[in-house]
Amino acid sequence: MKYLLNRRDLFKVAFGSIFSLFSFLFGKRRGLKIKNRGTIMNGVKNITTLPESGPWPTIDPFLFCVHHNDNYPNATNEFIPNASLDGRNMGNDFSNKDGWSMYHGQTVPGFPKHPHRGFETLTVVDKGMIDHSDSLGATARYGNGDSQWLTAGDGINHSEMFPLFNQNKNNKLDFFQIWINLPSNKKRVKPHFSMFWENQIPKVMLEGENGVVSKVEVIAGDLNNVKAPNPPPNSWANDKENNVAVWVIHLKNKGVVTLPEAKINIDRVIYILKDSEIKINNDLVNSNTMVELHSERELILENIGNDTKILLLQGKPINEPIAKYGPFVMNTRSEIQEAFDDYNSTGFGGWEWDTSGPVHGEFKGKFAKLINGKLDRPS
After folding, report:
1. For the domain that residue 211 is a member of, what is the CATH number?
2. What is the pLDDT of residues 11-21, one digit of tens each?
3. Residues 301, 291: contact at Cβ < 8 Å?
4. Of 326, 299, 304, 325, nearest to 314 (Cα)?
5. pTM of the entire structure?
């Protein structure tokens, strides 16, 4: 069986809208404004306004970051929105019409099968559920505090569907997806699939002088001697010297969190969401921004507005050439062409489901059937 994928198809299968893909493929921060350059306030390098839609700018070793925040209506008994789909560009709906999108899904929202090679995806789910299926036979249903870390490596074809289960109320979906680059000597490693269940992800509770308690989810790296679960074995994050960190910082009104200093050669950014009111070392920072920080300095984050969360990404840059097209990220253009050829001839392992966007039936709990066939469930 052939899995023909041409350059036109890539604009359909990659994770994001056409606008998102152009931004990602060609490395341009379209629609963004660099608010400031240089050291603009104590501990801050740059502040960049985030786009209204599509992926956010990132720093090496990260390639891509996007925040999905959908408020779906109540569901039918087939896990689909109980609402009209009129007026949507079905198959490519990033409209956020009525506060939600179908993305590439035709009935169930989500992203039917699409390939990756040469990097990793880290999906951090706050609310809602995701059904995963892939070309190596692995499946999963996870969400509501879980994270999935997938090393695409030599190549994998997978789907990410968003089944809706609440028939009597709205279905909230809120998650970050982050793409993490692999160094040249790891781009063709065997794919790997890890689940970090909600009860396995450490939460560091930090109480300010005013008694307000903030929570930091440590998904990668460590904070105050609290370590995240082990990353996949071939991840850039698996080497402690690379100082990779992924934290989700939950701040209540008047909550305060101190970011400890890191090594001087480490890049660190935080993402401040829309309508947030955050101070960094007593200076108010605009909402809907990426803030590049001096990682070697201790910084104090203070929330003076409504409850919010902040995403922190940190790591030592890989500093290697990048060739990228859609779902393939390599070091040279010839390797990109090789990825096309390999996918078209092998499908990166095939596809055992009757549909391109499988949904795993009624909700009977979270689970993951790993690539090695082992069944994993939250304890």
Report:
1. 2.60.120.10
2. 444 434 333 33
3. no
4. 299
5. 0.91
